[in-house]
Amino acid sequence: MIITYADIDGFKNLSGISFAPDPKYNIILGPNAQGKTNLLEAMWILSGCRSFRGSKEKDYISLEGSRMSSKIKIKDSVREQKISFEMTKSANSSKIIHLNGVKQKGTKALFDVFKCIAFIPDDTEIIKGSPEKRRNFIDMAASQLNPIFVVHINKNNIIMNQRNALLKDIAQGNASADVLEIWDRQAAHEGALISYMRNEYIAKINEICGRLYKTISGGTEELEFEYKSNVYKPEDFEKPCGEEAFEQYYSKLRETSDYDIRTGSTHSGVNRDEIVIKINGVSAKDYGSQGQIKSAALVMKLAQAEIFMQKSKDAPVVFLDDVMGELDESRQRFVLDMIRDMQVFLTTPNESALLPEIKGKILRISGGRIMEAE
Hints:
Blueprint lengths: L1 E8 L7 E3 L5 E5 L6 H9 L22 E9 L4 E9 L7 E4 L2 E3 L11 E4 L4 H5 L2 H15 L2 H24 L8 H37 L6 E6 L14 H13 L1 H7 L10 E6 L2 E2 H4 L2 H22 L5 E5 L7 H10 L5 E5 L12 E6 L2 E5 L1
Parallel strand pairs: 3-13, 3-14, 8-12, 12-13
Antiparallel strand pairs: 1-2, 1-4, 4-5, 5-6, 6-7, 9-10, 10-11, 14-15
Helix pairs in contact: 3-4, 3-5, 4-5, 4-7, 5-6, 5-9
């Protein structure tokens, strides 16, 4: 899969960006705060994923601007497709998304069309950040393999919001505790499916990350993942995800329901899962060095790309946001070898920090505009 054309205007500080990317390397050069990362982000949102920087949609338009648009053409092994995302700054406006000229109700359809993987400096937060960071990474990566996962995640989030609101109503005497069973049955179904999907993906990424990390560390260190489900034990996943699994999840919710009512929030289920990441048998979050954490985050993203390649005929597009310059020569070569069959967009303020074999289209950005394309 490659991006063949991009047209971006009004996204944050970007103005009048229009170019035909190189099918291999696209090097986005410029000092800090000129719009390099904004350019990657403007293309990334067309994948249907939330901003990799955590930006809210209302912030896509600059304070001085009134509208934004991001449009790309992508070509996979079958055909060329067009995606556009537009917004205007007005009280009753909302985003307008088109896929091949057909207006979409939301971003759901995009998720199965444009596949990309972003490497950013904040990736280390997957290792050292909150459990939610690790859950979100696994959920997003697994959803790229099977977009139906997004449906279950969204349903579960809606159910949890409704359940938590009901818990507060019950505690205040405004609702009956008997109503909770309705939501618990639904939560058990969605939660069980999510648990099994997470377990399956973590098994895949565990094997590949272990191999890649051993290579990048010179064979001296081992990286491993452990899925700590809030509901299931490891041996439970040997059974199929069916009625028994749903009932087990439901029973767990009922166990903590009294406590949930007192506190007004749900304490059981997939929203309490943890993914433990270990280096040489100990927690990377608690004991990993800065170098180990950076390497672990890097191989997690590389493993994500490899897993996707194993499933799909098309390689994902890769965004490297100010990452390569922080890597030594051996690690840069390791990354290049892993993504050699993918279209790459990379940002850097310093072209000399890149390996000499990284050659392609050069885009020099200043003040949100392409000043020169080579």
